[in-house]
Amino acid sequence: MIPTALPPMAPPLLNETTAVSATSLRDANPSITNDASSTLNPTTILSAPTSPTPHLHQDGTGRPHPSPNSIGTIVIVYGRGQEQIVHMVAEVLGKPWTIETSLDTLANANDVVVVGILASELDQRFSGCNRNAFVLINTHSVEDGSAPEEQLTECCDYEFLYSQSPFLRRDLTRFLSLILGQTRPHDDLRTKTRTNFISTTFPDVHAALPNLDILSVGSDAVEIRVDLLVDPASDGAPAGSVPSLKYVGQQLMLLRQHTEMPIIFTTRCTKENGKFPMDDPGLFYRYLRRAIQWGVEYIDVELWLPEEIRQQLVETKGNSIIMSAFHDFSGTWKWTSPEAQRIFSESAKYGDIVKMIAMVSTIEENYELEYFRSKIKNHGSGPLLSAVNMGQMGQLSRALNTVFSPITHPLLPMIAAPGQLTAAEINEALHIMGQLPKRELYAIGSFRSTPQSMFMEKCLNELGLPHTFASIDRGPKGSMESLMMQPQFGGASVNPPISSSTSYIPNISDAARAIGLVDTIAMSPSADGSATGPTSLVGENTTWKGIRATLTREYVPSAYRGRAAIILAGSETDASAAIFALRSLEVGVIYTVGFKASGPLAAGLEPFTSIQSVKLVEKPFVIVSALPPEKSLLVQPLLRHYRTASRSSPPSTRGKVYLDLTTGPRKGDPLGVASSAGWTAYGLEDVSAWTTVETLRLLVGQNVPFDFVRMASGRPLF
Questions:
Q1: Does the global pTM surpass 0.70?
Q2: DSSP string spanning 388-419?
Q3: How far is 267 from 291, CA to CA, in rounded Å?
Q4: How many CB atoms are located within 10 Å of the residue 606 CB?
Q5: Helix or strand (DSSP H, E) at 538
Q6: Any residues with CB less than 8 A from the CB of 142 and at least 6 apart, and which?
Q7: What are the pLDDT digits (tens) for 71-92?
Q8: What is the pLDDT of residues 528-568, one digit of tens each?
Q9: First and final CA of the chain: distance in angstroms?
Q10: In angstroms, rounded to a whole number, what is the distance separating the alpha carbons of residues 538 and 355?
Q11: Burial of 487 (0-12, 13-18, 19+ CB in 10 A)
Q12: Where are the strands (E) in 210-337, listed by range?
């Protein structure tokens, strides 16, 4: 499903009438050469015109960056012998690519095109071009242990470090989705009632990998403490030396390959129990700026850094989120002082999230913090506040903080700060304080025979939640209404789903109403965001999110935009979640086989009525089968047909994705046929795992990583 090596390079794919080959360009200008030893001149590239283009927009910081709807030309800078990465980028984006064209030709392209440029030719190829017409990404393979050339990195907007691993395609998709604004993890996290993050306090990320799935349960992000990393190449250097950028980049690459959660990039100074010297703010800037180029989701920026540096980071942050961090270890700093408000205001100038942490020695100081927190919250607009007290006396504040609470885990070698608690300890404390009432959760229907119900029971124990979980049959008419009226009812997973027109569920989400099915009944948060305020029940559909997450695992969302899709199913009900998921990706025409749609999702669907209909569709980008098990082999001829019929189309843009949603023993082997025919094939297990992640988030408000779901269900990732 995920390639273990880069695919072979295919011929360039741009229209020959508009592309100008590099050979022609060199013939016209004898000064252009292929000499790998030619000197890179960053001044030439960086001094190009800087006026915005239609493909770029300002993010309020003054720095143009790609619009998610029109991302222009992507220029991939690659090393000699690494042309395959250009092909993979194009496949992930679902766009054509070339390494033989003039950049001037593509500067005003109406749609994204991927252009590969050999690193040694970058200076010449950009000569005279409008620099802002392109998104420039330096790619570098770390297989030989080398580091990217510093000047080359500085010339580019972003940098992607990679190795030949089964995670490469997934890692590249995540990187591109973030830097191009295709996915915005923070938009989802900021709406949660409570968020946590786990800090990897290992000197080498390799040590965290065996338990990373378990460590991440209950976390919404993973922090990499750069100052705690120990660079093996620094043997002989003074104790406490800062790890090299080369080592940090490789460690970050490794961490991102093994978790789908957002990463927080943190550099702590010597005054705050870190290694970075306070007399060299420029060193902080180099590392934090590089983290932005590496596509890290969250950048921790210490407040004491000069304002010029903090402003520069904001102006170049792209789609990364800035966490402005203040720490006080003196024990004399007070939340009631005017200084506290001043620090928040100063942090808010250049921070999307304000993080304030202080050492305390009395329990009363937690109450002072909560009063300060309430004042900030009542003020209304502004960045989110994450505020906790350090030390044993400050542990109460860690339970009461709701925005990115730092947590630890027994499997970590050390805690990142005094007084840190685990996710389970925080949940237990909240329950004791009455902030996390005990609820009764249910799996209604046939869940007992599925791994999902057993997994949910494991998660409640791992998270230290007080809730109970039971699997029950749906029972006679009226049974569910009676169950939902119980005072301790906290929500349920329903399998098979029930109709969204059911009268006894007071609220139905827009997605569930459009799909026509409810598979999860959850408690909506109270208006004030507390766990004890008045709530109501809402019917949700999580299956479509599981389908969407699966489809965007190795392709950015825009790869599907405007592309043809085919869905095979025994009924519209079986296909509705897949239709909604594809519509959320803005696909083009959806062709149907085996059913005729008549509900709210029917618009834009076209049924296949004959063999001639199949021939008219030249290259579907995605095929989804939700056929009954006894008819599952009917999709196999389509998979084989479009493998042959699409050979004339560009490999990076032709049909690529097959999703099998059939439940039960299949006839034939559609997944095997799809894989052998060159499709990226996914089975129901992937969708079920992502659906479980979303179901748990709705039922208990906490995150359980996809990788942990797969592991706990007894299904390895590869």
A1: yes
A2: EEESGGGHHHHHH--SSEEEE-TTSSS-SSTT
A3: 11
A4: 15
A5: strand 536-540
A6: 161, 162, 163, 249, 250, 253
A7: 678 999 999 999 999 999 999 9
A8: 555 555 678 999 999 999 999 999 999 999 999 999 999 99
A9: 8
A10: 33
A11: exposed
A12: 221-225, 263-266, 298-302, 321-328
